[in-house]
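TICKET: design request
STATUS: open
ATTACHED STRUCTURE:
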């Protein structure tokens, strides 16, 4: 199963009485792997038979609600999610409603993929033209990691607390790794620049030597 995550910061509506959220579960924006999921290529036939909504793709432990509606739009797939009237369901609903969690992710099986080049940017993307929707999840990535302690203070469910803590630690490690890679890339660029300058100087010296030999 493949997954694709989006940060859904806009175009959301909430209903506290019904515990529902209208939001996007997928968009046509390329993810960090260069994949673009075509919304019109979605096949939700099997998903419709058991339209559960998960937390963190944990099908064995965290069913937090169910899907009421899926709509294919030009820029993605929108959904209406009804959260379960349970402690876990209510807490995940509140975290989304209050802006602490903004990320959603689809679990899917790609059936047809085509590489296409963006004529404007020149980037090559993997377009997933046809795919089976298996499930979608509210994923445990805090919108602001600095707010984690504030989130945990009001949470009652220990399972959710553990997942959020683990997710936050993974996010910190990922950010540190990204920073280290950026430093390494900067050093490589600087080294390449120095090598190019050195090559220019060496080439100039060689040319001068050849001219001198010919003049003898």
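STATUS: resolved
RESOLUTION: sequence designed for all positions
ATTACHED SEQUENCE:
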């Amino acid at each position: 199963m493949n997954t694709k995550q989006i940060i859904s910061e806009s175009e959301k509506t909430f209903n506290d009485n019904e515990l529902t959220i209208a939001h996007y579960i997928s968009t046509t924006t390329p993810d960090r792997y260069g994949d673009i999921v075509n919304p019109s290529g979605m096949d939700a036939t099997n998903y419709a038979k058991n339209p559960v909504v998960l937390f963190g793709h944990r099908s064995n432990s965290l069913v937090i609600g169910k899907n009421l509606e899926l709509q294919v739009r030009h820029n993605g797939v929108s959904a209406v999610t009804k959260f379960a009237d349970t402690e876990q369901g209510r807490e995940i609903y509140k975290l989304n409603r209050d802006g602490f969690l903004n990320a959603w992710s689809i679990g899917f099986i790609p059936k047809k993929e085509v590489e296409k080049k963006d004529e404007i940017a020149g980037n090559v993307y993997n377009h997933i033209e046809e795919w089976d929707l298996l499930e979608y999840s509210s994923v445990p990535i805090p919108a602001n990691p600095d707010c984690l302690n504030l989130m945990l203070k009001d949470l009652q469910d220990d399972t959710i607390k553990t997942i959020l803590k683990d997710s936050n630690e993974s996010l910190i490690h990922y950010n540190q790794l990204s920073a280290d890679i950026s430093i390494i890339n900067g050093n490589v660029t600087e080294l390449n620049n120095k090598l190019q300058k050195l090559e220019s100087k060496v080439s100039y010296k060689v040319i001068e030597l050849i001219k001198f030999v010919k003049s003898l």
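CLOSING REMARK: Residues 171-175 have pLDDT under 50 and may be disordered. The chain has three helices and ten strands.
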